[in-house]
Amino acid sequence: MVLRLSTVWAGVAAAASSAGGLDYVTVRVGDDQRPIAGRVEIEAEDGGVLLLARDGALWAVKKEDLIARRSDAKPFAPLTREELARQLQGELPGFRVHTTQHYLICYNTSPAYARWVGGLFEGLYKAFYNYWTRRGAVLHDPPFPLVAVVFDAQAAFQKHARGELGEAAQSIIGYYNLHTNRMTMYDLTGVEAAGGNERTASARIQQILSQPGAERTVATIVHEATHQLAFNSGLQVRFADVPLWVSEGIAIYFETPNLESTKGWRNVGAVNRFNLVNFRKYLPRRPPGSLPQLLLDDKRFRDPAAAPDAYAEAWALTYFLLQTRGEAYVRYLKTLAEQKPLVDVSPQQRLADFKRFFGDDLVALENEFLRYFRSLP
Predict the structure, then answer these.
(1) pTM score of the predicted model
(2) What's the pLDDT tens digit per position in 258-317?
(3) Cα 17 to Cα 24: distance, rounded to the nearest angstrom
(4) DSSP 16
């Protein structure tokens, strides 16, 4: 589950800011005021701003919540890893930080679990960059250290997540927040809450990974971490109107790890059996013209009754296009990455963008798509 921007800014015309120095704003957050240093990315016509903070957070600030603003000539620079680690520990007292090549794992559970998460994410990072660069995508290194927050238990995680997700926090094990740019999850082993030591933690991790449901559990975490990579590598743009079938399809495409491999992945892009089963269950009741409906808008993903089928079809379409039209798909992603934050894209433009790379005859494409999946073993 990706925590997305609220609809407050939906439909607001915006223009890029020309500010060159460091911007300082004071923002109203509930009953409090919060000073933030960063760079104004967008200035909305109504006076609101989109500010990129030095910790990587994106603040979409409405005019009425913008209390003060000034700038100076000091150049914008992200927080260093050390500065960001100190900030995280200031926000989350009692947490420690495990550092890997690309991640800061902020945790209050066992060090063994933090190391396992760091290893899993570094494996994903390598697989993600290798996959897309070999297919011609131009990616950049993340401009900020990638942050993952790991709580020791589900109850503590839900208490924290409720402030960002509301009641949806009750039904998930992790999420990526487009605003904070952080992954948040909890220790699935429960070792720290039970008072276990390092040896116990390592044994419990292996026990969890050997269970039949482990693949789905780990896949959920990897799914959200894939969103984080997509929005920090240049493959996608935060707060841009990216079609959900694209962003969710990519996350599902990468989500399935190989738990028998020490590197986490042996074959990125293998058939996602879980979603293949779901898609085949959907096929007998799939209405004609389901493909254009998926392309035009995100309504199916926001309808709890329709969402499981939409996610399965998003993966199926992504898999089909990457297997049969990979070069066109990468060019399509490049076009989507040129979209501006906070600017709505009409259904007609979404459809035109798709047809530009995959052809005007959607009926023929849909028939080929369905034949392809009916022939998969």
Answers:
(1) 0.91
(2) 767 655 666 788 899 899 999 999 999 999 889 999 999 999 999 999 999 999 999 999
(3) 14
(4) E
Specify the residue for token string 């960002």. Answer: 164
The enclosing H or E element of 40 equals strand 32-44
Please give the Cα distance from 334 to 235 (Å, whole number): 7
| Top-level class of domain 2-72 | mainly beta
Helices (H), the chain: 81-91, 111-134, 154-165, 198-209, 214-232, 244-255, 273-282, 290-296, 299-302, 307-324, 326-336, 347-358, 362-375
DSSP string, 167-182: GGGGG-SEEEETTTTE
* Residue 160 near residue 171, CB atoms below 8 Å: no
Mean predicted confidence (pLDDT) in 326-332 = 98
Q: How would CATH label the architecture of 81-232?
A: 3-Layer(aba) Sandwich (3.40)
Task: Identify the burial level of 285 via C-beta atoms within 10 angstroms of its C-beta, where 0-12 means exposed, 13-18 middle and 19 or more buried.
Answer: exposed
Are 58 and 9 in contact by the 8 Å Cβ rule? The answer is: no
Domain limits, CATH 2.30.30, in the chain: 2-72
Q: Among 307, 298, 300, which residue's Cα sits nearest to residue 241?
A: 298
